[in-house]
Amino acid sequence: MQRGFAPLTNGNNEPEANVHIVYMGEKQHNDPGMITDSHHHLLAKIVGSKQKASELMVYSYKHGFSGFAAKLTESEAKKIAELPGVVRVIPNTLHRLQTTRSWDSLGLSYESNSNLLHNSSNGDGVIIGVFDTGLFTFPSLYRPWLLSFTGTGNGTSSERPFCHPSLFNPKNETGIWPESKFFDERGLGPVPSRWKGVCKSGEKFNATQHCNRKIIGARWFIDGFLAEYGLPLNSSGQTEFLSPRDANGHGTHTASTAAGSFVGNVSYKGLAGGNARGGAPKARVAVYKVCWNLLGGQCSSADILKAFDEAIHDGVDVLSLSIGFGIPLYADVDERDGIATGSFHAVANGISVVCGAGNDGPSAQTVQNTAPWILTVAANSIDRAFLASITLGNNKTLVGQALITRKENAFTGLLYPESHGLDPTASAICQALTLNGTDAAGKVVLCFTSMSGRIAITSATSAVREAGGVGLIVAKHPSGALYPCPGDFPCVEVDYEVGTKILFYIRSTRFPVVRLSPPKTVVGKPVSAKVAFFSSRGPNSVAPAILKPDITAPGVNILAAASPLDEFADNGYVMHSGTSMATPHISGIVALLKALHPTWSPAAIKSAIITTARTAAPSGLTIFSEGSPQKLADPFDFGGGIVNPNAAADPGLVYDMGTSDYAHYLCAMHYNNSAISHLIGNLTKCPLQKPSVLDVNLPSITIPSIRTTPIVVTRTVTNVGSPNSIYEATIEPPSGVLVSVKPEFLVFNSTIEKISFQVTISTTHQMNTDYLFGSLTWTDKVHIVRIPLSVRTEMFQPYGNDY
Question: Out of 250, 576, 664, 783, which one is annotated catalytic?
Fold first, then answer.
């Protein structure tokens, strides 16, 4: 697959050089020095000398795969793409950054002695690599700085194969703030002997002080970003550290969610109190800071690929990436998607790669990180709410949600700003709140917004505060994700229905008043889990037959470690929402499964998670999907369902895959033999008759288009339970779709571990339909092995299907 290069020039009308990734596939031998020399030699052929090649080289990828990043003009990129051994030339691009109750809600109580957490020894010995903004430490916990910054993060700084213990150390995807209690090393044994990584000192990060038996590795990668954009670290006006230290807070939060140590008596503004920890509290953390507090939080694909290259060499077991490329516009192993390419090599080396689905929901076809070897995670709420009473002057009490700590106020004036001659709501839109000429002093203000996220609430808070107001009620679309008002200003979030009731009351009386009560934490059955409004949805726009997302996990109002630079932090902790928060939940669970089943492949672990997932909330209530309108959740919202860690520990059967299965996928996606051979490292020839992408051995079946002819798909399952087992098929067909399976029974014994079966699907519909959903389940009366079925009838191809 090749793409053209847009012509660029500098101010002198000379061709402009930009960073390109020269991808050469699987490395041909294991001598890193010889691989790097070959890269310089190849580049020198194009640019004229080895000295110039050295100057233009940004990275040499030499451990997990072969290739390099270099500054090239359009003409040079075209020439180098034609050289033998070059798979493709990838333009450097930017990627975006995507607890007390959440683990208990998944059945992983710290006190239990019979769950996955206990049986896997809390993930002891497993190494989780986190690609993010680094890690952050907290002023009340850290010792005076011991600075030893000696390099740029590309291998020239001082390196230590192991860092001596310090009291506290955290991890973060955008780096780490290592003094957090979540990264205390106490109770951990020696660093695993197989670990080959390093801990690098840098700005306000000292390898000896800040790495220990918990944070066993820390690197940062910025050369690709700087070579492309040339921005000094302070050019954005944001704090940043040229080191693994986290200036953003994103990485510290995600790292503590995945592998934070046990911390008692944690709360946020007095809410959500309890004991906190990560999913695999005895797992070790390796920090790969690839995202920077620049241009709104960005990560260069050249830097991400270098981090993959080093992580494969270092010996991580799991990689957690709360990073996305945006809505996918190109094929999976594409010249612009460094995550898909790097993750392929990681998975080929036995490393599970977990990525977020993205935060572009609830629209269809917005899911990111769609390669079939990636475990892609959607976000759901948990069985917890922070309910705040809103008492009106007519003695009616309504309920919203809030994250405030102030005491209950007395009745005070209530205002809805309206301007005569304008649309009644024009001056009361939260993000453009107009209070000029209104008497807002000493009053609570009601506003409406259609925006999600912090912007509307932050803007409205500022306007109300400046006008002398004392509180804010924000009416918005129904969503469980909460955003505290800056400066702990009293604000309560409600949905449009409640907001309209408040507005009716205001218009019904001359002197409306209101009393805002502090919120209370409510957990358990009264609160049902929902797929979050923001969570990106399927179907997969690149390869519609590959179901994405794969799974959903808690990602709404997640309490974890905070950076001191986070304005919303409270005593070292903060609540955030996003698929960035859901991703480390799955990463922690993968680490526990890896500790329990060290020989399982990434595909087997992925299958176990998907086939045992819940399609009803842990409370037994139906799972809904937030959106417009709210609906019952389906596989395009949550993949297999809500993750069920304890069931995943003993799935019975798995849908396993290896590189040959991924080669099948690549052939079906029209990649040529040469590109596939270089990617895999073995000579590969696609069959003359293109294989069907429907037969990729995934734990799901998705038929994007069926007409009058039945479709037959094949799957293979591997028995990982009792050797002598008999499984029977149960089918819940999508409405109007006929589904049959042969054989209907799978008989395993000590010599038969793998069995293939065929599923025949036909439709009774005589017109186009949207996707309809069902399931295929194998059970031996002990295990329930369920995969989702998604089928769309297309008698002709229209534009504008709902999916």
Answer: 250
